[in-house]
């Protein structure tokens, strides 16, 4: 999913991601220091979001603070989580010979204790580290710093499945495999 095309601006997407996943009640100047965009670009997109009735701007405190309207917050988060899931599926597609299967978890509305479970085949540590770093980069792009990801070899997965391991059975019950 190309969020920039959907929302019409990379700056607008970054602002929304920041407000949804990092923090709200932030000023435009603080956004400027957190994001790579200039103040005029941020102000233009915040004004556009205000006109679209997506954000509120509180002007009562010493500085302005921006928040996503509460009634839109969950809806927008779901759209961005869909984009995150799409980005991860694209990443896993590039490693399809190495990754046997993967399961999405609690961040994606699935009743699992983990955010993501990745089952891999015969990988060496450098390859695993590269995939982990790519996954971390995708989550960081969405301003999500903390994520629980489990990497498990296919052999270990099969062994735990045969032993009726609770963790593996919980994942199989949700059956959100791709």
Task: Describe this structure as you would to a colleague.
- By secondary structure, this protein is an alpha+beta fold.
- 55% of the residues lie in helices and 13% in strands.
- It has eight helices and five strands; from the N terminus they run H-H-H-H-E-E-H-E-E-H-E-H-H.
- The chain has a three-stranded mixed beta sheet. The protein has a two-stranded antiparallel ribbon with strand order 1-2.
- A hairpin with a 6-residue loop joins strand 1 and strand 2.
- Helix 3 packs across helix 4 and helix 5 (70-94) packs antiparallel against helix 6.
- The radius of gyration is 19 Å and the shape is elongated.
- The two termini are 17 Å apart.
List the helices and strands and how they pair.
Blueprint: H1 3-7, H2 10-22, H3 28-34, H4 39-51, E1 55-58, E2 65-68, H5 70-94, E3 99-104, E4 116-120, H6 125-141, E5 149-153, H7 154-162, H8 166-174
Parallel strand pairs: 4-5
Antiparallel strand pairs: 1-2, 3-4
Between the first and last Cα atoms, what is the distance in angstroms? Answer: 17 Å
Query: SS-based structural class?
Result: alpha+beta
Counting DSSP H or I runs of 4 or more residues, the number of helices is 8
Instruction: List low-confidence stretches.
Output: none
- Rg over alpha carbons: 19 Å
The biggest sheet, with number of strands, parallel, antiparallel or mixed sense and barrel status, is: 3 strands, mixed
Number of strands: 5
Placed side by side, the strands forming the largest sheet appear as 3-4-5
């Amino acid at each position: 999913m190309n969020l920039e095309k959907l929302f019409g601006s990379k700056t607008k997407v970054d602002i929304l991601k920041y407000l949804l996943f990092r923090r709200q009640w932030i000023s435009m100047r603080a956004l400027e220091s957190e994001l790579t965009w200039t103040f005029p670009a941020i102000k233009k997109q915040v004004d556009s979001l205000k006109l679209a009735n997506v954000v509120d701007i509180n002007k009562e405190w010493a500085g302005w603070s921006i928040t996503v309207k509460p009634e839109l917050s969950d809806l927008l988060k779901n759209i961005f989580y869909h984009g995150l899931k799409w980005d991860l599926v694209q990443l896993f597609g590039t490693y399809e010979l190495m990754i046997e299967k993967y399961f999405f978890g609690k961040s994606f509305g699935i009743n699992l204790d983990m955010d993501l479970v990745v089952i891999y085949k015969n990988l060496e540590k450098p390859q695993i580290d590269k995939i982990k770093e790519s996954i971390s980069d995708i989550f960081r792009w969405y301003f999500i710093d903390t994520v629980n990801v489990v990497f498990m070899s296919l052999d270990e997965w099969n062994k735990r499945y045969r032993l009726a391991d609770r963790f593996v059975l919980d994942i199989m019950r949700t059956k959100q495999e791709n």
